[in-house]
Amino acid sequence: MSMTDKRTVRAAAVQIAPDLDDGAGTLGRVLAALDEAAGKGAQLVAFPETLLPWYPYFSFVHPPVATGAEHLRLYEHAVVVPGPATDAVSAAARRHGIVVALGVNERDHGSLYNAQLIFDADGSIRLKRRKITPTYHERMIWGQGDGSGLKVVDTAVGRVGALACWEHYNPLARYALMAQHEEIHVAQFPGSMVGPIFADQMEVTIRHHALESGCFVVNATGWLTDEQRARISPDEKLRKALTGGCMTAIVSPEGAHLAPPLTSGEGVLIADLDMALITKRKRMMDSVGHYARPELLSLLLDDRPQPTVRQFAETAATTSGSARDEADSTQAHDQPLDGGADQRIAVLRGAARRP
């Protein structure tokens, strides 16, 4: 029996401008792009970072004191997961039988998060993850994600993982996905920022990840029109910070572009992924297999959700031996990593057991 993966996956990376007036308008553009990509035979379609309703470009060129109105407007148009916007994307994925990777501003009550969603070909949401550390100006806009989102999920096109923008500069975050044997990595960047140097750095980053992980990378960046840049800032000097920085690309496990990248304008980039190239690359260098040295170097990952409230409560019945053993087992699994937390848990445990 052959161990070579003979599958071919047709991937699409979409470089697209949002509708800065209306989240529903951006959603319409997403659905139209899905129709177009599906018409070209795409089985996987990737969109830019927080495309829906739009990336908070305003926060990059204006001081925090001047961004209140735009920040509140982003709240107004942000996406609840699940909700009407995700239902529409789910229906499109199911109708076309395609896997969709979409970046959204997720609203969770009083906070916004930079979220990446992966919809399977049956329309189900296989992954919702939040950017673990927003970058620079973004920290005024979004909350932080946690390790529960550092997951690779099985989909109709294979094992898919995702990171947003400068998360790719966190080698441990990338290794967490590599260790889960991702076959296709979706990278999402805002685009239309910083200038050509951003595009150059992005290209280095995604090609390196493809080589190091031995997987395909499908990267999508956003686009702003001249009119949109003028709307965000009337200052010509500030508008220069909202140019360039686009590198929509599809890269093989050997680090090669599978199609000429898109660096300006809108478009849909299409390439066929020969999955046999994964084994071809990993035969030479498997960073999480025969090339690893776990006795020397390893990753400690806390992949538990981190809720703001944790309840430690035991009734009188739980003081019985079996219940106590179960509580001990649970707390051992949830053992915190810092000594101070260890002491707090010990105090709570002792208080719960006192009659």
What is the structure about, briefly put?
The chain is α/β, with parallel strands linked by helices and 355 residues long. The chain is built from eleven helices and eleven strands. The strands form two sheets. A six-stranded mixed beta sheet has the order 5-4-3-2-1-11.
Give unreliable regions as ranges: 316-320, 322-341, 343-348
What portion of residues is helical?
25-40%
Helix-strand makeup class: alpha/beta
Percent strand: 15-25%
Along the chain, the helix and strand elements come as EHEHHHEEEEEHEHEHHEEHHH
Q: Supply the CATH superfamily name of the largest domain.
A: Carbon-nitrogen hydrolase
CATH level-3 fold name of the largest domain: Nitrilase/N-carbamoyl-D-aminoacid amidohydrolase
What's the structural domain tally? 2
Averaged pLDDT, please?
91
Span between termini: 64 Å
* CATH architecture annotation name of the largest domain: 4-Layer Sandwich
Specify the biggest β-sheet: 6 strands, mixed
Number of strands: 11
Strand arrangement, major sheet: 5-4-3-2-1-11
The geometry reads as globular
CATH domain class name of the largest domain: Alpha Beta
Estimated radius of gyration: 22 Å
Q: Provide a count of the helices.
A: 11
